[in-house]
Amino acid sequence: MVLDVPDPARADPLSGxxxxxxxxxxxxxxxxxxxxxxxxxxxxxxxxxxxVERLRTLGFVPVGVQNAGDGHAATxxxxxxxxxxxxxxxxxxxxxxxxxxxxxxxxxPERENPPPPPAKPAKLLSQPVRSGKRVYARGxxxxxxxxxxxxxxxxxxxxxxxxxxxxxxxxxxxxGDESARIFCxxxxxxxxxxxxxxxxxxxxxxxxxxxxxxxxxxGEDLIIDPISEPTTTTRRR
Length: 237
Fold this sequence. Notes:
By secondary structure, the chain is α/β, with parallel strands linked by helices. The chain folds into two domains: 2-88, Alpha-Beta Plaits (2-Layer Sandwich), CATH 3.30.70.260; 123-226, Pectate Lyase C-like. Helices cover 12% and strands 29% of the residues.
C-alpha cells in the first residue's frame, strides 16, 4: 500500500490514517506501507522519523518512501527504509525553487576515457541476521551463507545471494542498477525489490514460496522465476 503524505503545514500527516483505523481496526495490522512524499517539502518541518514511529505504533510496517527529496531520502535510509525512485510511482516530484545557487568554480574538463572504478568485493554474511537488523552492501553485492530471520533487511547496490531461506526484506540495486538480481534457495520474504520496483508477500504467487528463485527486472516488471535444481545421475562401474 502507498500512503500519500500531505504537506505537514496544512494537515497532520496521519490524521486520515487514524480515521481509517477507527473504521477497520484490524484490517491494516502488519500491512507493509510505502510513504509517498510528493506533497512534502524537503525541510525539517516534516519529521519523517516521528511519522514512521507513529505508523509502527498503529500497526503498520513502513518499508520505504517514494518521491522524497534528498534530505528525506537520506533520513529514510538511516531508518532502514528504501528510497524508491520517483519514476517507479508514475508521478514526478514537483520542482521547487531552491533559491540562488552559490558561485562555483568551473569544472575541469573530464578525460575522454576515464578508468572504470575498481570493483568492490562482495559483502559476506556468515553469521545469522536477526530480526530488526539491517545490512547494507554499499557499492557491491551481498552474499549470505547464514539464516536470515523474519524482520531482517538486506540491502545492496548490486546483487543479493542467499544460500538458504530468505526471510525479511531484500532490496537489490538500490542505487538504480536495473541489472541487479536476487537469488535465494528458499523464498519466504516479506518484501523483495530491484532498483525500486518491489513486491510484498501478498503479491507473490504462493507456488513460489519455499522454492529456489531468482528475481530480476524485465522492463518495469519485477519477475520472480523458479530455479530448477540440477539433476544428478549415477553410473555403475
